[in-house]
Structure formats: structure tokens, C-alpha cells
Design brief:
Strand order of the largest sheet: 7-6-5-4-3-2-1-8
Protein name: Deoxyribose-phosphate aldolase
Number of domains: 1
Structural class: alpha/beta
InterPro entries: Aldolase_TIM, DeoC, DeoC/FbaB/LacD_aldolase
Family: Belongs to the DeoC/FbaB aldolase family. DeoC type 2 subfamily.
Pathway: Carbohydrate degradation; 2-deoxy-D-ribose 1-phosphate degradation; D-glyceraldehyde 3-phosphate and acetaldehyde from 2-deoxy-alpha-D-ribose 1-phosphate: step 2/2
Order of helices and strands: HHHHEHEHEHEHHEHEHEHEH
Low-confidence stretches: 3-7
Strand content: 5-15%
Mean pLDDT: 93
Keywords: Lyase, Schiff base
CATH class: Alpha Beta
Number of strands: 8
Oligomer: single chain
Length: 316
Amino acid sequence: MTATATSRLSGLPDSPADLRTFLHGLPGVDKVGIEARAAALGTRSVKTTSKAQAIDLAIRMVDLTTLEGADTPGKVRALSAKALRPDPADPTCPPVAAVCVYPAMVPTAAAVLAGSGVHLASVATAFPSGQAPLEVKLADTRNAVADGADEIDMVISRGAFLAGDYAHVFDEIVAVKEAAGPAHLKVILETGELATYDNVRRASWLAMLAGADFIKTSTGKVGVNATPPVTLLMLEAVRDFRERYGRQVGVKPAGGIRTTKDAIKYLVMINETCGDDWLHPDWFRFGASSLLNDLLMQRTKLTTGHYAGPDYFTLD
């Protein structure tokens, strides 16, 4: 752990041994309890009078994403235009929070989004595996920011974390945070590979201690991505972290959230766990693209009384 790392927060563990002691001293997660709590919150409903507001809030929380090897400049330009005007026929529809692309596509997206207020996020640090030397990860980050990204979504070294080398993971996050400069840093835990809820809690705290602005569940590239219990656990972590250190950190579940019903369940979970302070795009995001179309279809239904046709909105 570096001197820079240990100066981030007062009371931060100042050695690898202290960091391990701190992380393993966190309360163990009650697997049955966290799953039951997430399931119970999933049964809550939103009144019809509030559903329109919930849908618009969810739209404003979407990170509209394309992370495919076949991405083209044309696809990224079209996605960026959709981010600005999700429903071209309805100017009252709000824009999304951000567009998320690979570093090579940042200049293309930046040309469309410039001055709009919609953020430009880029995955970096050898996404999705994280298996690259630190120098490569830092160059990846610096290039994306130089090209116009104001948010960086980095992946942690899961191998190092699972091997118990917490200091290595910590120092990499600190270094990427420094390389990102003014850009906000979202740290992807890849919770589907962490095996246990205890590991998710430890990784969440590790990322926040190292300076993450957001903690994010997943890359969307593994078998298990965002789940309600994992997201609930991460929401509890950011709530408890702010209470202890006075710094607020955002949460981004990513992968597998496809319907308006699912999105509203997550909004209820935020409200019940963290309160109104996190019910804002600055503090909660959905890493999803297919979700946006369902939100738009449900929004049209509320406005007009009928669903739009299946080809009404673009496929991303």
C-alpha cells in the first residue's frame, strides 16, 4: 500500500496486514437473511400515480452501453443520439445518464454528446478480464480521459483479490483513480466471480477505501451479473461507509436488468436501504441497454393508453 493510498481517508488501514484485518473484521453476511430481505423488497409496488416519475427517474439512471467486438462508429453515433433523445417522438422524455463504450469509441461518442450534459463513460483497465500489466491499465485510462471520457469503469484484479492480495487490488484502484484525473471512477467488482457474499462486502469496502466514486457489480460478460441480493449488500456497504467516513459512493448494478418491473424493484431497494440521497443519477446507475426500450414502452403506455409497436424503438 502506497503513501498516496493511505492518505485518502482518516483512519484508513496503513499496511497490508492492517487492511486484511480490517476487511476480515467486517460483519459476516447472513446469506439467508440478505436473500430474504431482497426478495421481500421485490414484492413492494409503486402506486400508479408515482409510476411515471419512477420510470423517468430510471431512464435518467441508465448507462446506455455497447461493449461488443463488432461495435462500429455508426452504431456508437446512433446509440449516443438515442441517449440524448430516447424517444424522438416525445421531447418530454428525459435523456439517459451516460453512454458507455470501449476506449477506441470514445472520440466518436464525444463528438455527439459534447455539451449535452450526458456523461461519457469508458471501460478501461483491460476490460473485462483485468489481466494486463498496470502500465497498460493506466495508459488505457489516460487515453480514454484524454479523448473525452468523464467516467471510467475499471475492473478489479479478481485473481489477486481471491488470492488474498488485497493490497495489490487497493493500490491498482488508487493508481487508476489518479490516472483518471477529473473523471469519476466506477470500480467493477465482477461479483459473479467473487463466490461469496462476504467477498462482495470486502471488495465493496476495499474499492471505497481506495477512492472509488461508484462500485459496480459486473462487466455483463460472465454467467452471473447483477442480482438483487448482491445489489442490496452493496447498497448497505455504501450506506455504512458514508456513516463511518462521511463520503458518499454510488452503486451501479449491471447486466441482466431488462424490465421496468425490475428497475422499479431496484428503486424501492434504494429508498428502503439508503434513502432519498441515493435516488439520483449521480449516485445510482443501471448498466443496461435493453432496459431502456422497456422503460420507453411502459412510458408510452402510461401516456397514450397503449403500447408502442415492437419496432417503434431502436434495437441496441
